Structure prediction request, 156 residues.
Amino acid sequence: MKLIRILPIFLENFAAFSLGRRFRALKLWMITRALGSEGIATLIQEHITYARRLEKMIQNTPNFELLAPVPFSTLVFRFHPRNTRGNSDTMDLEANKINEKLMEAVNQTGQVFLSHTKLRGKYGIRLTIGNIKTTWEDVSLAWEIIKQKANELTNN
Prediction:
């Protein structure tokens, strides 16, 4: 019986070297030195604005749904084609498989990196806006790629 999950689900597709406390502090110091506290605040606010704009786009796109509120710059959503058949449990399992394939297809483009999580048994795709060089054009491109790959999955 598996009682403890050694690798949390949010780290399954995250590859990086271990970041100790001192290294994280150095990264923060460098960013603060480069941008200043006001610059960091402005950057975070821009990212939250991008996330809110994308939130509205997701809400207005058929077959996509948000799985969690968007208080900051991380969005958790899923593709849920309405043509799935069966009871709600079967539909959720099918949607989970489709979303896993969608995330993999988007990541394979090399233009966007998405991660995933599970909320109440539903496989959610996580898009986080956090790089200091991210622009609205980058976020918009990511959304277009996601929609394109979702369309390709449903047409095959």
Observations:
- The chain has one domain: 46-155.
- The first helix runs from residue 21 to 59.
- Helices lie at 21-59, 88-108, 136-155.
- The radius of gyration is 17 Å.
